[in-house]
Amino acid sequence: MAKNKTQFLCNHCGSVHVKWMGKCPDCGTWDSLEEYKTPTFDERAARTSKGLRATGDLAQGATAVAIGQIEEADTPRTKCGIAEFDRILGGGMVPGSAILVGGEPGIGKSTLLLQVAEALARAKGPVVKGKQATRPVLYVTSEESAAQTALRAARLGAKSANLLVLAETNVERIINQIHQHEPAAVVIDSIQMIYKPDRPAAPGSVTQLRDCCMDLVYLAKSAGVSVFFVGHVTKAGTLAGPKIIEHIVDTVVYFEGDRYHSHRIVRCVKNRFGSTHEVGLFEMTGSGLVEVSDPGKLFVEQYGPGGPPSGSVITAAMQGSRVLLVEVQALTASSVIGAAKRKVSGASSDRVAMIIAVLEKRAELRLAADDVFVNIAGGVKVAEPAIDLAIALAIASAHLNRPIAAGTLVVGELGLGGEVRSVPQLEHRLREGARLGCGVGVVPRMGGNVPKLGGMAVHEVRTLGQAMATL
Ligand code: TYD
Ligand code: MG
Q1: For the whole model, what pTM was predicted?
Q2: Domain range annotation of the chain
Q3: The domain 312-470: what is its CATH number?
């Protein structure tokens, strides 16, 4: 009979080692290895069918049913009233859902969630048996003291009697409080600081993070309480990041950009109850985050009478269901021979490398000896290929030192052959550009479906060369 083999499992990165060590050789974390016995074949077998049958558990499990016979659950939603936040969640919070809010430290997670908690505490709950059920909202602060949270709340004007604050890090005590107060929603700020006392691992380790999150998600589902988790995205990697619990929760939203800009972009990257990539826009002010419902030309600089400098191009990017006008900026400068740098911020660097190659090959721009910098102004991140043409024209404009006239909107994907390809929702983008006063549009061919836009001259281009000639 096979014997149990003792191994050591790292509670930080999950790697398995044959002997105990003070430091995990895979992730470099100290004191993270724990003894772990691999179950023998017999133990595994006993746990599965034989064991289940012996205890009668098999008959009690769920039975498979035809998909057509399952009743669709309609998902009632509670709107908190902060429209930008409701939009990210796909039209409000679904009771019993688990939502992860991630972002760099200091970006505004606690501020946003305290505002959301206050708004939910004020929002009217659903009507149950003719009575308006108003359930409190519990804000669990595990990083700051209750007094610190109160200070922030005063700044935000949050003073609803329905908003309860709990300074606690022990997950069992938190769950106990949830049972006591039966809140409609719970905010855990942050998940990386709470722990389960019967686990030896430190708070913030993979084991603690996963177990605490799992316990709270089970509670959310069974009690119909929505749980918001705050997770820090750490660069150093000393604590386990929120990525580890992404698969456990229903909705994942991340703060984008950096804290040096006053605008905050909150993007939904996963949503079991709505569309993903929906984006909420906020501005950090002295009294908390303020919604920006019409971004308009928020991310586009208004240049004086001299017009924009060379290397600046306006494009229209889709952010969820909304069009955002953004400014692509490029700069080229002669480089140390043989060590040309390419630095990109806000767009994909692989994509920019490809665009530079296309510019070299198809537009005969000599960039090999130049440093190329590309930046999407305002800290916005755009992953779409629809901004390829704008990036290409920005680099060309910078390289040739020829500014592109103000009010020119450039949209299109670039192929390796230098061809300009069509992009989704082109009409939507053009309409938004026209609304915001762009006088010229440079777009891929629309096959005779060019919309009538008051005041905008639309130029359809087939190739990169044509686009450059047009401008
Ligand atoms: P915070 O929500 O504490 O960030 P996180 O929880 O993501 O770490 O936000 C911290 C920053 O926001 C801090 O630098 C101060 C600033 N802030 C304002 O500008 N206005 C406000 O009303 C508040 C509450 C914070
Ligand atoms: Mg915080």
Answers
A1: 0.79
A2: 5-54, 83-291, 312-470
A3: 3.30.230.10
